[in-house]
Amino acid sequence: MTVSFTLNGGRVTSAAAAMARLLDVLRDEFDLTGAKEGCGEGECGACTVLLDGDPVCACLVPLGQVEGRTVLSVEGLARGAELAPVQRALLDGGGIQCGACTPGVALSAQAHLERCAQPTRSSVNEALAGNICRCTGYERITRSVLAAAQCEDRCAKSGPDASPSDAPAGAAIEEDLSAADLSKKILIAGGTDLLAAGPAAWDRFRAGGEVLDLSKMRDLRGIGLVAERVEIGAAVTFAELRRHPLVREHLPMLAQVAGLIGSHQIQNRATIGGNMANASPAGDSLPVLLALGAEVVIGDGENERCVPYAQFHTGYRQTVLTAGELILRLSLPLPGEGQHWFLRKVGTRAAQAISKVLLAACFELRDGIVVGARLAAGSVAATPVLLDQAAAVCIGQRPQEELARRAATQARLEVKPMDDLRSSARYRSHVLGRLVRRGIMSLR
Ligand SMILES: Cc1cc2nc3c(=O)[nH]c(=O)nc-3n(C[C@@H](O)[C@@H](O)[C@H](O)COP(=O)(O)OP(=O)(O)OC[C@H]3O[C@@H](n4cnc5c(N)ncnc54)[C@H](O)[C@@H]3O)c2cc1C
Ligand code: FES
Ligand code: FES
Predict the structure, then answer these.
(1) For position 224, which CATH number holds?
(2) Is the CB of 136 under 6 A from ligand 3?
(3) Residues 281 and 314 in one domain
(4) CB within 8 A of 301, min separation 6: which ones?
(5) d(Cα 129, Cα 131) in Å, to the nearest integer?
(6) Ligand 2 pocket, 38 CB below 6 A?
(7) What is the pLDDT of residues 326-354, one digit of tens each?
């Protein structure tokens, strides 16, 4: 089986395994060594390439998922002998250092310049947050990209022909849900957890080859309004959630948390269904889904069942999914009148940081009185926790200091935080109390 795609403007075919990493294929088969392997886990961005114009980490993309798509590596960025404006600006502005991460920086910057009508210092910094350069020199990089933003031809597509290829999509990895025996398959969506699991996982893929690509299933992909509820396919990415007008209008807390997941490279690939199925207590979307009162539709190719999301996580990294089942979609109620929300993620830095604590809360207020409350926290127990008792304390009360203090104390009693590399249990408990207090005081 071969995989065909457009690479730097030309049609190419690879006979490598469908689960081979795009990074290895580019470097070993096509001799394109601009994309570097820094971490192999999606953290550093040195392997960044553009997939259909979006920055992704080539170390986390299986070859089979580029079938019929367009890949741009740094080798395709220049226009013949002439450097692209962003490359020229990095060179002129000294935003290059030792050069190891520069190809990834240039491609992330190029994508941002093409997508953002008016790049600013903060939008550039956010767009480059997934390119962690060990030489530092961030200021010069930012200045160089802002200088490139002034060039009239900054957006001109590079390479001889960067239009999507006409190859039929989906030949390399199976995609027909009804025909698949799910219990025998490795399910892959964005691959950000699966491929970050390292060489042991890749060996399993190479040996097994029994892979089902959820990202190609139309049933798992859409976002829509159905009977006064927002339905979101499990294979919707965080980048899509972040941008989608329905989500931004009705579920702004979900759009906001999508922007807190990893970097742009990760958001362009990671799916909400994968975040739920991976079931890490630090999964950032999970407390938000709890606070929003989501329901999960689960299926096995023939039958469907609907489970309140509050019952989905059954233990550390465990869910109600049985062998052969997958998450099809989420269903979320539209917010009612007088609803307020509060979201805070506390980590070591703003981007690319696993949460130490995350609090998501929805409150309903009538005449200044709390008449509804759902608070949920992440990274403070083996599963994301719905803080039922803290919510109960709020009902019928005015959001004042005394209430905030009582709810914070109650919330701390409802969780069982752990000591680990990122934080201590004591710190997590303390921060959770502060966040609950702040959430309630934000209602005043
Ligand atoms: C560098 C980096 C930074 C990150 N930062 C964050 C962060 O800040 N916050 C955060 O919450 N997460 C973070 N993550 C993890 C996040 O990317 C994943 O949890 C992601 O959401 C998983 O989705 P995916 O589509 O990539 O899943 P995949 O890797 O494709 O799959 C993950 C698991 O879920 C299963 N699966 C996928 N979809 C389904 C489905 N529909 N039904 C049943 N099973 C399914 C797969 O079989 C697999 O076992 C980060 C990851 C990386 C590599
Ligand atoms: S090698 Fe570091 S993100 Fe891919
Ligand atoms: S350019 Fe040297 S480590 Fe980034």
Answers:
(1) 3.30.465.10
(2) no
(3) yes
(4) 177, 178, 180, 182, 324
(5) 5
(6) yes
(7) 999 999 999 988 999 999 999 988 788 99
